[in-house]
Amino acid sequence: MARVIKEQEHAERRNEILDVAQKLVYTRGYEQMSIQDILDALGISKGAFYHYFDSKQALLEALTGVPWERRSARFRCVVAMVSPDGVWETAEGVCEGAIAFEPAGDGGFGYDPVFFLPEYGCTMAQLPPETKNRISHRARAIRAALPVLERLACRR
């Protein structure tokens, strides 16, 4: 039987999670912290975390008061490829940016509304789809994977 969480208990737990997240950001730095670190520090599951937060909102709240120069972020995609004879290689694509102070834009999904691209002056969610699809970490990973795939295919 599911336990009904009272509104006050919900708010207290949410604040506890935010406190832990902020402490981790200040002690480790954002680049060295992940949601998993917060989960480990609290001893809770991802499901429990997402019960208390929309993940974008949790990220923004955890970064409250963190200055722009400490809000660096990256999207990373790794493509793994294996040839029929068992040789495997990876290719990586990275898109560098920063976590915005507030969401902006209607395009994309996930963290796109809070992932700011300084060279474009907007969030990933504000980019035209053609631009996003050209510069995204996934597009970069696939472009990096093409020569690897050709090399693996030539092994036959």
Write structural notes for this entry.
It is a single chain. The chain is α+β, with helices and mostly antiparallel strands and 156 residues long. Helix content is 44%, strand content 18%. The chain has 6 helices and 4 strands, in the order H-H-H-H-E-E-E-E-H-H. The chain has helices at residues 7-28, 35-42, 46-52, 55-62, 129-135, 137-153; strands at residues 72-82, 88-99, 115-117, 122-123. The chain has a 4-stranded antiparallel sheet with strand order 1-2-3-4. Strand 1 (72-82) and strand 2 form a beta hairpin. Helix 1 (7-28) packs across helix 2. The chain is globular and about 65 Å long. The model has no long low-confidence stretch (mean pLDDT 84).
| Distance separating the two termini | 57 Å
How many structural domains does the protein architecture include?
Answer: 2
Helix content: 40-55%
* Strand/helix succession: HHHHEEEEHH
